[in-house]
């Protein structure tokens, strides 16, 4: 249906301008809902996928984490025809070591609040991919075989760890330092995995020892290489990330 679905949020919705987030995956626009700033995201995720994501955000909001809160339609649904409308989170990206330590504390809280959370529909964890070939945006079949071996060797170091929800894309653009605390936005890559994937932070803000940091950094590089790889092998970010993973 496209943006016509906005009608289901009532007459008090005004769409503003397109934002840079979600390029290639979603259309993300600024808007106002009943006079309040908001963000609308239109994509092709399934209803089950969006139910998982909006349910997670509502859970974290109830627990006091400053996250984008899904705004319901006039009949009480939290998404419609691929469209999600969420509260706008203002703030700045992390800049200092102290900022990143606060980010690490917030990420660990996310992990504590979601132990045992069900997997996002259609997704696979890093350790699932030791045996599976595909999962949502990942298709190991299009990667160089030697690269797959290196990615799987990095993920094999995570076997046996307890799982939880990971944000999955903790770059500075997805983090807001606010008066209420550290807010994490853009949960499009969130899924259930081992917490290590979120903990290879700048300045080693999570305080990992050398071996734990190396494990997390290698697993995260492997994940980003696999997620971003395209069949032509020309995605330079993916190529760079793959090059960071040690040969077996």
Automatic annotation (TrEMBL):
A GO molecular-function annotation: kinase activity
Domain Aminoglycoside phosphotransferase: 36-220
Keyword terms, alphabetized: Kinase, Transferase
Lineage start: Bacteria, Bacillati, Actinomycetota, Actinomycetes, Streptosporangiales
Transmembrane segment boundaries: none
Protein name in the entry: 3-deoxy-D-manno-octulosonic-acid kinase
Protein source organism: Actinomadura rubteroloni
């Amino acid at each position: 249906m496209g943006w016509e679905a906005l009608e289901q949020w009532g007459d008090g919705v005004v769409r503003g301008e397109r934002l840079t987030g979600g390029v290639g995956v979603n259309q993300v626009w600024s808007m106002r809902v009943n006079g309040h700033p908001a963000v609308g995201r239109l994509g092709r995720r399934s209803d089950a996928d969006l139910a998982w994501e909006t349910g997670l955000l509502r859970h974290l909001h109830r627990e006091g984490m400053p996250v984008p809160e899904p705004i319901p339609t006039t009949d009480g649904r939290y998404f419609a025809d691929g469209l999600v409308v969420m509260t706008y989170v203002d703030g700045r990206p992390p800049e200092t070591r102290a900022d990143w330590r606060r980010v690490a504390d917030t990420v660990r809280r996310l992990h504590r609040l979601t132990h045992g959370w069900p997997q996002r529909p259609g997704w696979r964890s890093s350790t699932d991919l030791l045996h599976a070939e595909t999962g949502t945006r990942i298709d190991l079949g299009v990667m160089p075989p030697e690269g797959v071996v290196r990615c799987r060797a990095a993920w094999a170091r995570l076997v046996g760890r307890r799982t939880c929800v990971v944000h999955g894309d903790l770059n500075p653009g997805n983090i807001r330092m606010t008066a209420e605390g550290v807010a994490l936005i853009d949960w499009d890559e969130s899924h259930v995995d081992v917490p290590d994937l979120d903990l290879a932070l700048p300045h080693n803000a999570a305080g990992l020892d050398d071996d734990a940091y190396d494990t997390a950094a290698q697993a995260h590089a492997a994940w980003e290489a696999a997620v971003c790889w395209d069949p032509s092998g020309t995605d330079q970010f993916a190529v760079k990330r793959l090059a960071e993973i040690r040969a077996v």
